[in-house]
Amino acid sequence: MSKVSNRTKIAAALVGVLALAGSNLVAADPLADVQKADGQIHADAAASQKKVDKFFDQAQDMLFEYGTVADERESLKAYNDYVATLVADQEASMKAIQDDINGVDKLRQGVVPLMFKMVEALEQFVALDLPFNTQVRKERVENLKNLLSTAEVTLAEKYRLILDAYSIEREYGNFVAVNTGKLDLNGKEVLVDFFNLGRVALYAQSLDQKTGWMYNPETKGWDTMDESHLRELTKGIRIARKQGALDLFALPIPAAETAK
């Protein structure tokens, strides 16, 4: 009896020890779980922080890119506005040019008759003017008349040449010149020095300086000058040829009524 009881007690003790050990193991499991969960939380937090940092960096890059794109947009807008202004100005210029082109026909209709009238008036003027450089001036008028009927020359060039001819005629009124030529006196040609004071008066003097004539616009002939004027005429001719010093000289001139 006693041995059995002892064995029973020992077995009971072992069961108790095992039960206590089992209870300690069971109690230790929740703490491990907490520690494990805490570690997981820290790991997740670290991973989340990395994601946050990554997203922040991406956001900063996107913000920088946005600023760059915004600046480029403003620059492009300013350039587009500038180009639009140029295009508008070019369109206005093209319209003005087109209007000019459309008006060419009207301009031509007005200019062509005007040019014919100008050449005709110039021809009449040369015929009525003092007879100096007559051959050259008449040839100039004839060239202009032929030019008007030439298709190879542009309208602008024709008009320019007519204006040049008018300019030359205008300059004739401001010059003093001497030219040697032949004077026709009643069918007889005499070699003389022609001396003209612009369009005020035209004179002629024989090369021996013994005879002088003054052109009479009223009779379209030559009047013999008084011998008292020959010295002054010679003086004027010498000055015009720059063979004498500048000085005053006195010569008769046609009356104002007949010098038109």
From TrEMBL:
Top-level taxon of the source organism: Bacteria
Keywords on record: Signal
One Pfam family linked to the record: DUF3450
Signal peptide limits: 1-28
Name recorded for this polypeptide: DUF3450 domain-containing protein
Source species of the chain: Shewanella sedimentimangrovi
